[in-house]
Amino acid sequence: MVKPFVPQLVYIEPRALDYPLGQTLKDKFENMGIEIRETTSHNQVRHLPGNNDFQKYRNAKSTLVVGVRKTLDFQSSKPSAEYAIPLATGCMGHCHYCYLQTTMGSKPYIRTYVNVDEILERADQYMAERSPEITRFEAACTSDIVGIDHLTHSLKKAIEFFGERDFGELRFVTKFAHVDHLLDARHNGRTRFRFSLNDAYVIKFFEAGTSRLVERIEAARKVSDAGYPLGFIIAPIYIHDGWQEGYRHLFETLHDRLPVKTAVPITFELIQHRFTGPAKRVIEKNYPNSKLVMNKEERRYKWGRYGIGKYIYQKEDEALLQETIEGYIHHYFPDAVVAYFT
Ligand code: SF4
């Protein structure tokens, strides 16, 4: 069982101490006996322990920076939401395929932002611009926010904030099962709590440092019992020997351990495995022994934003993946909604 995340090293930006949450976190980490260093800016967190890049990368992923979010412009977050709400960046998990490896570049440590009220005020402005249309906010674009929230409770605050808004909804996805502190949050059904799931092979070989499948499903059951709209992201859907049986077993396990009927239909989001040229290079550096196959010749190139295209499955493989996974969903969860396959 993966224990709740505890950083080995904490950096605190001095400005963070102007906010109550900054002070609370400082006291908390002092009481936990964790080494705390002061830094004027997260860009100065350069001297992370470690003799080489490999060690530094690993140490960074257990380092937490407590800072202030300066940019209050939210990025877009299609297809699952209109905006990404930035409560934290970085993650302590070691998923080989994770896109944060490229987006976080040389700074893979975890950052949490203490100016949560300012971030939520900005969300209010975005909602006002679009009302009466509902604006959806995704809180897990740049981190696995649930995985650190037992320390910060920023997500819990955001859940309760959206619980009181008429024109906004919150959503996030996690691979961590440490959800107990979120069960009594006053969500008013306005937060969709999603879990990222995969078959046994993918979890075993590519998702180190995250909660195991049955732990995630058990957490999903608790969340559903707490009245949250529930969803699952099956990603990355990956072809390997025995994948059809592997994914069938995943849905069977899910079916056996979850109530099939929920007040709000369960949603499934389906994302096939993809990689970019730069990501392949970074993955091979960070996880040199990975079994993850990224063979460009076996894939189809799809142009992407910013001129960086990605390698997805060939048309026939893609069609088979979609048909197979959607078939399992319709069989085991006839009332569920498949939001998209991409
Ligand atoms: Fe990346 Fe999510 Fe894995 Fe964290 S849990 S390393 S954010 S894929």
List keywords for this structure.
342 residues; alpha/beta; five-stranded mixed sheet; 11 helices; 17 strands; 35% helix; globular; binds iron/sulfur cluster
Description of the structure:
The protein is α/β, with parallel strands linked by helices and 342 residues long. It has a single domain, classed as pyruvate-formate lyase- activating enzyme (Alpha-Beta Horseshoe). 35% of the residues lie in helices and 22% in strands. The protein is built from eleven helices and 17 strands. It has helices at residues 20-31, 53-60, 100-103, 116-130, 145-152, 154-163, 200-206, 213-225, 243-257, 277-286, 315-332; strands at 9-12, 35-38, 63-67, 76-77, 81-84, 88-89, 94-95, 110-113, 135-138, 168-174, 191-197, 207-208, 230-237, 267-272, 299-302, 310-313, 337-341. The strands form four sheets. It has an eight-stranded mixed sheet with strand order 4-5-9-10-11-13-14-17, covered by helices on one side. Strand 1, helix 1 (20-31) and strand 2 form a beta-alpha-beta unit. Helix 9 (243-257) runs parallel beside helix 11. It is globular. It starts with 8 loop residues before the first strand and ends with a strand. The chain binds iron/sulfur cluster (SF4). Iron/sulfur cluster binds at residues 91, 93, 95, 98, 100, 144, 175, 210.
Q: In the CATH classification, which architecture applies?
A: Alpha-Beta Horseshoe
Question: In oligomeric terms, what are we looking at?
Answer: single chain
DSSP helical segment count? 11
Summed over residues and divided by their number, the pLDDT gives a mean of 95
Give the number of domains: 1
| Largest beta-sheet characterization | 8 strands, mixed
Specify the structural class: alpha/beta
List ligands, each type once: iron/sulfur cluster
- The CATH class name reads Alpha Beta
What strand order characterises the main sheet? 4-5-9-10-11-13-14-17
Shape: globular
Strand segment tally: 17
Cα gyration radius (Å): 20 Å
What is the CATH fold-level name? pyruvate-formate lyase- activating enzyme
Q: Note poorly predicted spans.
A: none
Report the helical percentage: 25-40%
**N-to-C SSE string, H for helix and E for strand:** EHEHEEEEEHEHEHHEEHEHEHEHEEHE
Termini Cα gap: 31 Å
* Beta-strand share of residues: 15-25%
GO molecular function, one term: lyase activity
Enzyme class: lyase
Pfam families: SPL
EC number: 4.1.99.14
